[in-house]
């Protein structure tokens, strides 16, 4: 995608220089540190990184469901141009009910085991539709959504309880609940991780198709580089609360620039049978005292003095492909 | 690779339920494992991978069939194996968070198998041996006085490996040892496992659902579906010429991180359907409901394992001429 096209596209969500920290018994953990990215209409954007890098915190911030001890230090999240953190409660409600919705890693705990699918589905729809919408209308919306997620025999599914459905079917139900209200943005938090590969493949394909047919925007969060490569068009690689590299998915995976991305790619077992790296030395930094400069510096093989003192800029290497590293040069 | 260390013959494990229903968790599996070899046992959830692991270490008794380890039939011994048999086959579980006792220090956890299997050691020797065990798996000896919750997932898993190695086994059953870990940590643990195998000529039965990992680690790969074997071959042959329709579907479903890998996947086969319940295994070939090559015979007759090339067996009616 060239730069001109990128600008022309309508932006649905923009995260601008967001920082989030948590107050844990008097100690402050600085988790998200200056995150910025955009999601266009109908675009699928990936957030990928290892556990503890702040992916889920990022998603929670978008829906403003961060825990009470969270402090938003700076920046903002703009959904259709409005800052989520400044929205009055009524407007926030509308955004959550009809604007953006989330699906979770484990569909078994996302659905309530003691209510039938019908009962939970209609409750969710009641909230996202105007007050007083007849139940029949809601029911038909639900059936339509179940058809859209390719579930056979939707009437039977509606009568079932979660334990009667398989993991893949439950995840489809969760997706149906999210799209039935006509939401424009789906936050998918590791949607296939707890499922088998063949089922994960089906769920990812479904999300891709929905994004294309319904102009649904998706933020896909995963720790798996493979999943992100196959299901997004734009990717943000996260490390310790920062975006270290971003760009069109194809470009980033073809030629990663940031030392962390390179090291991570080397750790992924490959079908080619190329030998596996020995891991990345060290571990994710302590967020109460994050490294002052580049957060990857203590584990980076190339780190020098400057890395420990100055935060690297998120430099555009080639058109649309950025990396936060002091040693990356424009055009290389 | 030299002698055969383990042979599993027509192994079955049924779990009776109420109402005369039976879960056929393992329904006639044959496997062989050679000394110093890694056999990757791959399957989706519910395929019976862990059931096989538990039978090997004597946590379950087999319903039928034989487990022959170095010429001795372990099935007859059931769960009453001799101490030596227990010593030589050890297991590492998937979740190191729950397989290590949270109330014990690492040292105490490591001293338990020493007290059982290394009776010659005095208490002081065992105390020090725990630290040596940690160093053998690449962890600092000081970890011995820590509690598991203060350690990372990868470190905990290496401690489970150290505990399994305490009795100096010759066969390790690795039941999804790295699926709960991040890739950079997984790479570290796998690196260590490979190194240990080379040093001590260990045999690994590596149970996993991650086929790409097996490409890097296993010498041979076996695919399990609903308690039955689908395909078994040497790793290179397996990934180059997958024969069983289920194997092809699995391989084409793997999300891969590079374009080179994309080329190696079989042509895109859209995965369909889900693994049926093992209570109600379909008649004939258990995969026929999801198979795109299905023929009338698949519904009626159960296919048999057949060797179609040296070391490469497939259980499918397509290859029965």
What do you see in this structure?
The complex is a heterodimer of chains A (about 325) and B (about 325). Chain A is built from 13 helices and 12 strands. Chain A has helices at about 5-10, 55-60, 90-100, 105-110, 115-130, 135-150, 155-160, 165-180, 195-215, 225-230, 250-255, 260-265, 305-310; strands at about 10-25, 25-40, 45-50, 70-80, 80-85, 100-105, 185-190, 215-220, 235-240, 240-250, 315-320, 320-325. In chain A, the strands form 2 sheets. Chain A has an 8-stranded mixed beta sheet with strand order 6-7-8-3-9-10-12-11, with helices on both faces. Chain A has a 4-stranded antiparallel beta sheet with strand order 2-1-4-5, covered by helices on one side. In chain A, a hairpin with a 2-residue loop joins strand 11 and strand 12. Chain A has a single domain, classed as Rossmann fold (3-Layer(aba) Sandwich), CATH 3.40.50. Helices cover about 35% and strands about 25% of the residues of chain A. Chain A has about 325 residues and is an alpha/beta fold. In chain A, helix 6 crosses helix 8 and helix 8 packs parallel to helix 9. Chain B has an 8-stranded mixed beta sheet, with helices on both faces. A 4-stranded antiparallel beta sheet of chain B has the order 2-1-4-5. Chain B has one domain (about 5-100, about 170-185, about 195-320): Rossmann fold, CATH 3.40.50. In chain B, about 35% of the residues lie in helices and about 25% in strands. With about 325 residues, chain B is an alpha/beta fold. Chain B has helices at about 50-55, 75, 85-90, 95-100, 105-115, 125-135, 155-165, 185-200, 210-215, 235-240, 245-255, 260-265, 295-300; strands spanning about 5-15, 20-35, 40, 65-70, 70-75, 90, 170-175, 205-210, 220-225, 230-235, 305-310, 310-315. The interface of A and B includes residues 227, 265 and 280 of A.
């Amino acid at each position: 995608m060239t730069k001109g096209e990128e600008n022309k596209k309508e932006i649905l969500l923009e995260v601008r220089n967001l920082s989030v920290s948590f107050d844990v018994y008097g100690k402050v953990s600085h988790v998200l540190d200056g995150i910025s990215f955009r999601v266009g209409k109908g675009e699928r954007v990936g957030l990928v990184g290892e556990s503890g890098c702040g992916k889920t915190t990022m998603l929670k911030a978008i829906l403003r469901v961060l825990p009470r001890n969270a402090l938003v230090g700076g920046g903002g999240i703009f959904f259709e141009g409005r800052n989520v953190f400044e929205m009055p409660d009524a407007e926030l409600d509308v955004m959550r009910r009809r604007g953006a919705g989330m699906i979770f890693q484990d569909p078994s705990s996302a659905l309530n085991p003691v209510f039938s699918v019908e009962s939970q589905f209609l409750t969710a729809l009641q909230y996202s539709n105007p007050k007083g919408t007849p139940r029949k209308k809601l029911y038909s919306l639900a059936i339509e959504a179940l058809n859209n997620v390719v579930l056979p025999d939707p009437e039977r599914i509606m009568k079932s309880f979660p334990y009667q459905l398989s993991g893949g079917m439950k995840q489809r139900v969760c997706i149906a609940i999210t799209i039935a209200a006509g939401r424009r943005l789906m936050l998918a938090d590791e949607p296939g991780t707890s499922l088998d590969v063949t089922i994960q493949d089906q769920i990812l394909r479904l999300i891709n198709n929905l994004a294309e047919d319904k102009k649904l925007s998706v933020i896909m969060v995963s720790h798996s580089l493979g999943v992100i490569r196959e299901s997004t068009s734009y990717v943000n690689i996260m490390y310790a609360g920062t975006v270290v590299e971003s760009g069109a998915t194809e470009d980033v995976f073809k030629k990663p620039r940031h030392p962390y991305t390179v090291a991570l790619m080397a750790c992924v077992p490959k079908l080619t049978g190329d030998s596996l790296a020995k891991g990345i030395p060290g571990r994710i930094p302590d967020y109460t005292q994050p490294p002052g400069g580049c957060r990857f510096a203590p584990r980076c093989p190339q780190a020098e003095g400057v890395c420990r003192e100055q935060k690297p800029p998120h430099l555009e290497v080639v058109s649309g492909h950025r990396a936060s590293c002091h040693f990356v040069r424009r055009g290389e | 690779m030299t002698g055969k260390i383990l042979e599993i013959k027509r192994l079955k494990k049924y779990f009776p339920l109420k109402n005369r229903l039976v879960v056929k968790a393992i329904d006639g599996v044959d496997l062989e494992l050679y000394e110093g070899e890694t056999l990757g046992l791959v399957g989706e959830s519910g395929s019976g991978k862990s059931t096989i692991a538990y039978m090997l270490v004597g946590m379950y008794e087999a319903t039928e069939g034989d487990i022959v380890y170095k010429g001795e039939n372990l099935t007859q011994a059931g769960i009453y194996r001799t101490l030596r048999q227990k010593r030589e086959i050890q297991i590492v579980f998937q979740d190191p968070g729950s397989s290590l006792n949270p109330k014990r220090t690492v040292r105490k956890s490591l001293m338990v198998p020493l007290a059982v299997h290394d009776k010659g050691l005095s208490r002081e020797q065992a105390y020090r041996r725990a630290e040596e065990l940690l160093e053998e798996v690449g962890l600092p000896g000081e970890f011995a006085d820590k509690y598991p919750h203060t350690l990372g997932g990868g470190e905990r898993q290496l401690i489970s490996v150290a505990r399994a190695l305490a009795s100096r086994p010759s066969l390790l059953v690795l039941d999804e040892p790295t699926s709960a870990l991040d890739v950079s940590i997984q790479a570290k643990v796998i690196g260590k496992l490979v190194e240990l195998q080379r040093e001590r000529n260990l045999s690994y039965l590596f149970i996993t659902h991650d086929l790409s990992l097996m490409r890097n680690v296993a010498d041979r790969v076996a695919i399990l579906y609903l308690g039955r074997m689908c395909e078994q071959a040497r790793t290179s042959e397996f990934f180059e010429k997958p024969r069983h329709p289920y194997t092809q579907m699995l391989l084409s479903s793997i999300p891969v991180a590079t374009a080179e890998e994309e080329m190696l996947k079989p042509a895109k086969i859209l995965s369909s359907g889900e693994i049926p319940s093992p209570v109600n295994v379909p008649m004939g070939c258990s995969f026929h409901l999801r198979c795109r090559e299905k023929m009338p015979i698949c519904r009626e007759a159960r296919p048999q394992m057949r060797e179609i090339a040296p070391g490469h067996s497939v259980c499918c009616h397509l290859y029965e001429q």
